[in-house]
Amino acid sequence: MPGREATRERGRVRGDVPDTAAITARSISRSFGRVDALREVSLRVDRGEIMALLGHNGAGKTTLVDILTTVLPASQGAATVAGYDVGRQGAEVRRRIGVTGQFTALDGRLSGTANLVLIARLLGAGRRAARDRARELLEMFGLSEAAGRPARTYSGGMRRRLDLAACLIGHPQVVFLDEPTTGLDPSSRLMLWEIVRRLAREGTAFLLTTQYLEEADRLADRITVLSGGRIVASGTAAALKAQIGTHAVQVALTDPTRHAQALRALRESGLSPHWEPGDALLSTPIASPAEVALVVRTLDTAGVSCARLTVNEPTLDDVYLAFAREVPRERADGRAAK
Ligand SMILES: Nc1ncnc2c1ncn2[C@@H]1O[C@H](COP(=O)(O)OP(=O)(O)OP(=O)(O)O)[C@@H](O)[C@H]1O
């Protein structure tokens, strides 16, 4: 529609936002009373890029996504999505984004097709175009066979796929995925990753929040780690891994009650080990394979013996724990600063 297009171009934020930017956030802060949920967060996601947002519970992920999707105003700072200012041009932003979870209220009595057709019609598509788009998406998500069944008969995984299909109906330029594969079986997970990659290759930008470090590692072009409302690390998985060390040593202790002692000794040797109750292995990133000897010597001197020791590439767990630790825990929990 040329008129609408012209209005869109006039409304586009002018200035320093280059054309390839799908999301820009500059010094975004948000407080809830005395709680600083986000503190001076700046990031950029380009068209066709997949960015993963990693963080503990309460790190600020939802708050950031809510601000970028115009659900919440920022207390400070500015952000654009698809070229529009989220504070001043909310309707323009909303027209160009897809948000998963938004359609969890899909009508269970309606079939998969009927649900998608209804949403397409609400977005202004003609009857024929709505049906075509619904068929295309149901096929893309492996739901063609179930297309005629009421959505309430779908499994959890199928409903999640239908939800993502629903958020893609309007060909959004930017898609926000909240924990996209939580609860999905491995094959549904792979299918979803494949669809996301394909859409990204076609130019759609994705911002996904995930607790699955493997998901961020395998799917995202770049990862942003949030802790206590601040960005504590950002970069490709490879760059983040390189920042904390080239390898990680994983150790299974012969006596599982000696973890605290092992952690203390390794820290005193200048290493950054981590282990949580319930973990089978204690892991510590090292700067070079030569430092394996330091780990062995340290544990030996501390009188802690190992049942097994392996050397691997650092995992995102190593990355996450190394960076997130830099913010005091009470901040990560979101409690107000003194
Ligand atoms: N409406 C609100 N009122 C008060 N505090 C809030 C509100 N929304 C969020 N917070 C606080 O802001 C901080 C960040 O919360 P947020 O939900 O953004 O974190 P999150 O990273 O999405 O966590 P989760 O993984 O648990 O969803 C938390 O301390 C939270 O308690």
TrEMBL record:
<dbReference type="InterPro" id="IPR017871">
    <property type="entry name" value="ABC_transporter-like_CS"/>
</dbReference>
<dbReference type="Pfam" id="PF00005">
    <property type="entry name" value="ABC_tran"/>
</dbReference>
<dbReference type="InterPro" id="IPR003593">
    <property type="entry name" value="AAA+_ATPase"/>
</dbReference>
<dbReference type="InterPro" id="IPR027417">
    <property type="entry name" value="P-loop_NTPase"/>
</dbReference>
<dbReference type="InterPro" id="IPR003439">
    <property type="entry name" value="ABC_transporter-like_ATP-bd"/>
</dbReference>
<protein>
    <submittedName>
        <fullName>ATP-binding cassette domain-containing protein</fullName>
    </submittedName>
</protein>
<dbReference type="InterPro" id="IPR050763">
    <property type="entry name" value="ABC_transporter_ATP-binding"/>
</dbReference>
<keyword id="KW-0067">ATP-binding</keyword>
<keyword id="KW-0547">Nucleotide-binding</keyword>
<dbReference type="GO" id="GO:0005524">
    <property type="term" value="F:ATP binding"/>
</dbReference>
<keyword id="KW-0813">Transport</keyword>
<keyword id="KW-0046">Antibiotic resistance</keyword>
<feature type="domain" description="ABC transporter">
    <location>
        <begin position="23"/>
        <end position="253"/>
    </location>
</feature>
